[in-house]
Amino acid sequence: MIVRLARRADRCFVLEPSLGPEGSLKTARKGVGRFTITVKGRAAHAGLDPGQGASAILELSLIVQQLFALNDAERGVTVNVGTIDGGLSPNVVAPESKATVDVRVPTKEDAARIEAIIFGIQPQTPGTRVEIRGAIGRPPMERTARNQRLWRLAVRCAEELGFQIDQAAAGGGSDGNTTSQLAPTLDGLGAVGAGAHALSEHLVLDKMIERSALLARLLSCPPLDVAVPPEDDTHSV
Questions:
Q1: Class of the CATH-defined domain 2-29+141-227
Q2: What's the predicted TM-score (pTM) here?
Q3: CB neighbours (10 Å) of residue 213?
Q4: CATH class of the domain at 31-138
């Protein structure tokens, strides 16, 4: 439904919370991927006949190190092995183990590259095999020219209402990741606050008035090709 409507939309506004206590709009978001890596080994008695086994846990430990090596703070790529599971008993060579992996990438190029590396992982431990499932399910929301034009419209509307607003990039995903592939998108138009998912999570009630006014102003503007002439976007990115 979101994809179908976005194809017909002149612009898309996402009412996720803003970023930070200053209430920045989100003009970029990382793409999000989830992968499950399962290693199949061969069980054996760890004391009587360990040589007949092939440890899925040993192989998974090698893969986990490969995955963490993909982290690149400079590029903004994060790869996190969030959970691992496996084995039958301390005295049994583990016949199976599994890890779930969270991936965050800032660009489509990074998404394709990291996904290819993960699916290219090969076992190093004799007698084991690897099964990999998953994908980058949410593509990155990038600072495209059309998204930046929508951002400039928001800046102008905020100025008309008597306040200033900034833009920022977020590490989490939203429906804006999807709509941005199809139509100009502006995210983070919702509540101003802080402490997401923590006990301190809160919103600032006084800010709801100006956020509502900004949204109303944006909805009432003419289509983008009339309201905001194309400009050089390099200074805004």
A1: alpha beta
A2: 0.81
A3: 16
A4: alpha beta
